[in-house]
Design a protein that fits this description.
alpha/beta; globular; 13 helices; TIM Barrel; 8 strands; eight-stranded parallel beta barrel; 42% helix
Length: 261
């Protein structure tokens, strides 16, 4: 059984005080989730907040700490970068790799993503690999071609012993921060194709273990329908993760089983 994962990408937001208040508030209002061991939450703050947020999450077994980026070298003259071993030393369990903002603004390529995924896997850091198409690519009918190329570019040739060591986030670029979101059925269709390709790359056993997330204007109003899809194992959440109440509602998404009780 794949344990759902709800990841918060805070991007370049929050002061130390704001982050502390947000985490403390989240821990208070996410009570239903904290009584349910079948969900995992990963908070991904800016680098200057990693140690402080990690200390607030210490002892919280359902919570993990993630970085928003990672460099593939272990050490050296790479000003401004953080290696996977450094992130582990900060308490990180996960790292976002290949987010569309990194690809667009910092010109990261599939090769860069491959090297980052490789370094993360070698150092027991779970990559959250992002793939997604632009609006122009979507309208041209190239969604599946684009996301499969990104997936293959970052993963083909990687060594993966277990699917729980990798997370994939499908984030259509046109839906990130726009208030627009793919339909649950549309997201499911693309994510099912990604799982099929994972089977081609690593075998069916591992493909069925990898958790695939949806991201792109995820909010309390659409999380239930998204999580009802069979291949969607969670969400990578941006703006809605910056408010404790909204992110808590996402974390405490309602399933048909819970609604029946």
């Amino acid at each position: 059984m794949r344990v759902p994962i709800l990841a918060a990408n805070w991007k370049m937001n929050l002061s130390r005080r704001e982050a502390k208040n947000l985490v403390e508030d989240l821990l208070k209002v996410a009570q239903p989730f904290q009584q349910n061991q079948q969900r995992e939450v990963v908070l991904c703050p800016s680098a200057h907040l990693l140690v402080e947020v990690g200390s607030l999450l210490e002892g919280k077994s359902n919570y993990g700490l993630g970085a928003q980026n990672v460099y593939w070298k272990e050490s050296g003259a790479f000003t401004g970068e953080l290696s996977s071993t450094m992130l582990r030393d900060c308490g990180c369990s996960h790292a976002i790799i290949g987010h569309s903002e990194r690809r667009a603004y910092f010109h990261e390529t599939d090769k860069d993503c491959y090297q980052k995924v490789e370094a993360a896997l070698q150092n027991n850091l779970v990559p959250i690999l992002c793939v997604g198409e632009s609006l122009e690519q979507r309208e041209a009918g190239k969604t599946k071609e684009i996301v499969l190329n990104q997936l293959q570019g970052a993963l083909k040739g990687q060594s993966l012993s277990s699917g729980d060591k990798l997370v994939i986030a499908y984030e259509p670029i046109w839906a990130i921060g726009t208030g627009k979101t793919d339909t649950p059925e549309g997201a499911e269709s693309t994510i099912a194709v990604l799982r099929q390709e994972l089977g081609n790359l690593f075998g069916e056993r591992i493909a069925q273990q990898v958790r695939l997330l949806y991201g792109g204007s995820v909010n309390p109003g659409n999380i239930d329908a998204l999580m009802a899809q069979p291949n969607i194992d969670g969400a990578l959440v941006g703006g809605a993760s910056l408010k404790a109440e909204s992110f808590a509602r996402i974390v405490n998404y309602q399933t048909q089983a819970s609604l029946a009780n």
